[in-house]
Design brief:
Largest sheet: 8 strands, antiparallel
CATH architecture: Sandwich
Radius of gyration: 16 Å
Number of domains: 1
Oligomer: single chain
Bound molecules: N-(carboxycarbonyl)-S-(naphthalen-2-ylmethyl)-L-cysteine, fe (iii) ion
Helix content: 10-25%
CATH superfamily: Alpha-ketoglutarate-dependent dioxygenase AlkB-like
Strand content: 25-35%
Strand order of the largest sheet: 1-2-12-9-14-7-4-3
Length: 214
């Protein structure tokens, strides 16, 4: 991590863990492009509600772009090169998503981030994500970059065990989070989304997570 990044003017980059950075508004200049890119992905691979291995339907609907996509069903959590709904490869990772993610990772000290997967989560009012770790990726040395669009959400981040107390931070339209190093396996989740209407996305929040899965 570059120390000076976090010593700059407030609002530039906020350190929320030793290996993490919150870049508020970093995606704002490209938000219109990002939303259009998501729309194009979704027209080929629509949002769908997946089930946990235990058979519980998730409240968030999901899709993917890139060589690999995260899926869950009765057989478990995993990455797949094909969309099980269509039998076709996931749509390619949009260029504007890739370049933004790489720029954010580099700012946080992770040069040469080469993601091969982008999970797209869609939250409607009431949708939430319970506390979990992201551990289906092969390589925990690579960071995860998260891009928030649309309605704000309260993000929870905990420690390396589920029982550790969680801190919360509101993620707004255009905010970008980079998680890596000692924070890569932190428990995290999202509180139920509040009602609202966003001028760019309407009544929802979209979260993109760029990952090196394979
Ligand atoms: C901290 N998504 O898709 S993104 C997920 O807002 C997920 O949709 C949330 O958790 C969302 O798995 C949170 C921020 C995030 C992503 C990955 C992390 C935080 C993380 C991995 C490790 C630690
Ligand atoms: Fe996660």
């Amino acid at each position: 991590m570059t120390e000076d990044l976090f010593g700059g003017p407030p609002g530039e980059a906020e350190r929320i863990g030793a290996g993490s950075a919150l870049l508020r508004g970093f995606a704002l200049p490209s938000a219109a492009d990002l939303v259009a890119a998501v729309d194009a992905v979704i027209s080929a691979a629509p949002f769908r509600r997946m089930s946990t291995p235990g058979g519980q339907a998730m409240s968030v609907t999901m899709s993917n772009a890139g060589a690999l996509g995260w899926i869950t069903d009765r057989r478990g959590y995993r990455y797949s090169p094909v969309d099980p709904q269509s039998g076709r490869p996931w749509p390619p990772l949009p260029g504007c998503v890739l370049s933004l993610g790489r720029a954010a990772a580099a700012l946080a000290g992770y040069e040469d981030f080469v993601p091969d997967a982008c999970l797209i989560n869609r939250y409607e009012p009431g949708s939430r994500m319970s506390l979990h770790q992201d551990r289906d990726e092969k390589d925990f040395d690579a960071p995860i970059v998260s891009i928030s669009l649309g309605l704000p959400a309260v993000f929870l981040f905990g420690g390396l065990s589920r029982s550790e107390r969680t801190a919360r931070v509101t993620l707004a339209h255009g905010d970008v989070l980079v998680w890596g190093g000692p924070d890569r396996l932190r428990f995290h989740g999202v509180m139920p989304l509040g009602a609202g209407e966003h001028p760019v996305t309407g009544a929802c929040r979209i979260n993109l997570t760029l990952r090196k899965a394979g």
